[in-house]
Amino acid sequence: MNGARAVLCALLICVATLGGVVIAADSPDGASAAEPTVSATDAPLPQTDGESDRLLSIVSEGDTAEYLDPPPGTIDRSGQETVIVDVSSAVGTNSDTIRSEFRQESLVAAFEEATTDAERNDIAADAATRLDERADALIAAERTAIAEYNDGAIGEREFLSRIAAIDRAADRTATTADWLRDDAETHLSDEAQQQVATDAAQLLRLQGPVRERTAAALGGDEPVRVNVDTREEAVVLATVDDGTYVREAVDPTAQTVHIEDRYDDDTVLALSRFQELYPWVDDARSGTSISLFNSDHPPTRIYQFEIPHTQGELMAYLDGGSADIIHETHRLDPESMPATTYEASDNGLALQVNATRGGGPLGIEVVDADTGDDVPATVRVNESEIGTADDGQLWTVSPRGAVTVTASHGGDSVSLETEL
């Protein structure tokens, strides 16, 4: 057994390289699972603009879904990048995936080959320790990437590459957490079980569809343009992918790990809180799916809402302790969202721009000013080439602040400026 454990410990290393990003377990996030659980306060503050003490507040703009966003004037940095294939990132991600799969297979094999409960207990305990170190390391790596981006030390390309790598690593690490919870939990102490639950909950916030799409583009899929907004440790990412506006927002300050679930496993009470935070979505919903994450571990219990509505779908993660949203994802039809239309005409070209908001979808259409026929014009937004408007409306994600849209065709061009 000692030999098997030595091999296992060697395999479950807690330092790994993710496409050039070094992950080291030297900055744990929060307190240990051994700390006492405390009761939640009786009346949570509204997580709404101007009243919340969170980094992100839920914004309501009327006839569209509410969304998490930094309050006005609090954004540390905002920018955009068109993510394209990166061979080194692709190779690094593939290598990390192979190593991770090998470690997981070795862990399961060692556990299944153990002949006594004592041996299985040791293997499970070792795996839980490595999981905790790995989760802390990934959280620290994201925190570092955000801090360096906020400080201007790295740009959008490097930042997106790093968090895409962290997303993939968190997904792989969650496999170990799932295995420990599903197949080995009875071999863990109560303290270790709670720590695994905490790690699993924290890994959730390191993953999202925009990060996943970014990783796919770095690996060779179609390029994707991503808008980035940060406030301290909170991140908002948005893109338009295959005609769908996809947006994810994460606020680590809304996540608790040692506060009792104020809803006590009651999804009806949790839904009431959701309705308070997202009244438009609640009115426009066509269904409701509520699931519990960490249902057996109240201090880290999360209520996951999947809500289809008239403009798309919202997925929101409500922390049972803070009663606030940790993480939300929107998938919206940009044509169904309210927008302001701007128009300009010059050199025989007519430009129409449908603008929603900064960081929201931006629709661009170019036609012949005389005939009204679509023109395959090259479109630039703030000097960045976005694509060709050759088949009706071209959708992209809008930057914040001053926006200049220019369409060019056959040596002619037309431009307009606005503020979002």
From TrEMBL:
Boundaries of every DUF7094 domain copy: 226-338
Domain DUF7096: start-end pairs: 1-221
Domain Fibronectin-III type-like, residue spans: 343-415
Positions of region (Disordered): 29-50
Matches recorded under Pfam families: DUF7094, DUF7096, Fn3_arc
Protein name, as recorded: Uncharacterized protein
